[in-house]
Amino acid sequence: MTGIPVGISACLLGKEVRYDGGHKHSRYCTQVLAKHFEFRSLCPELEAGLGVPRPAIHLREHEDGLRLVENKGAGDHTEAMQAFIQQALPTLGELRGYILMAKSPSCGMERIKIHDADGTFMNRDGRGLFADALIKAYPLLPVEEEGRLNDSVLRENFIERVFAYDDWMQNVAGENLTKHSLLDFHKRYKFALLAHSEKIYRQLGPLLADLKSEPIADIADKYIHSFMKAMTQQVSKGAHVNAMNHLLGYLKTDMSAADKTVLLEQIDAYHRGEVPLVVPMTLLRLAQRREPVDYLSTQKYLTPYPDELGLRNNV
Ligand code: SF4
């Protein structure tokens, strides 16, 4: 199996590309995610020609915008970085996600230090120049900082989005776009959408109700922007309980009273924080496997990513 193409800051793969010749190896990326993702690594500073080792650099706010300047001395690498960005961005359209290194004036996604034109610290409201250009060029792309993947909820959310975006790109985007592929995608993600954002879930049904009202490409574009926005929202325990109860509605008639009681007990236990999501979800999947209901068999909510990632053990 070829993995899902995902971009990553090169230092996270253990490559010695940092300014001091070091790396920031992430074992989770190289030992767990690498089994499912085919990483494409980039070091923007190295590829912009800054070399290794290189002077430490930071962001300074000038009248014409943010500049990438050496902490000590006057070396200004803004133009070199912009030239790299312009050359690299068009080559990243096949990616289904991106994992960035935190705190970097090039790769950092948020809370990056900004200094004034003289180099005095001002605030932490910045974003690395490469990260900023990447997010603006590919607003649908799931992007996350590696450090934030230590948070089990953020990690589960990011990986679910990567798999969903990959599904869209493989089966609906571009020349695969048909009314059928679009409606089929929506059908697969109904319960996932309901869990992430009931509001957007309720908007997307009407959007797809009349596929003749606008060119299909325009409807698909609106759909996927709303879809990815919904999927970015974290799912609360209450929203999972709501989605699981909806799902249960389709299973009820085929379940024995005893099985149903155990399932309801475990959904309640999950709601109280006593068991992780994997417990009621496994019982739902078991019930679905025993007495398959067609409508549920394709629901991504039941299996959004490979089980071996173990993501629902900790949310
Ligand atoms: S954070 Fe980005 S620019 Fe810095 S070493 Fe890592 S990959 Fe290179």
Structure commentary:
The chain has 315 residues and is of the alpha/beta class. The protein has helices spanning 27-32, 44-47, 78-88, 129-137, 152-171, 179-188, 190-196, 198-209, 216-232, 237-251, 257-271, 278-290, 294-297; strands at residues 4-9, 37-42, 57-62, 65-70, 98-100, 112-115, 121-126, 143-145. The protein folds into two domains: 4-150, no CATH class; 151-315, no CATH class. It is built from 13 helices and eight strands. The strands form two sheets. It has a four-stranded parallel sheet with strand order 2-1-5-8. It has a four-stranded mixed sheet with strand order 4-3-6-7, with no helix packed on it. A hairpin with a 2-residue loop joins β3 (57-62) and β4 (65-70). It is elongated, with a radius of gyration of 22 Å. It starts with a strand and ends in an 18-residue tail after the last helix. Bound molecules: iron/sulfur cluster (SF4). Iron/sulfur cluster binds at residues 9-11, 17-18, 43-46, 101, 104, 106-107.
How do you describe this structure in short?
The protein has about 325 residues and is an alpha/beta fold.
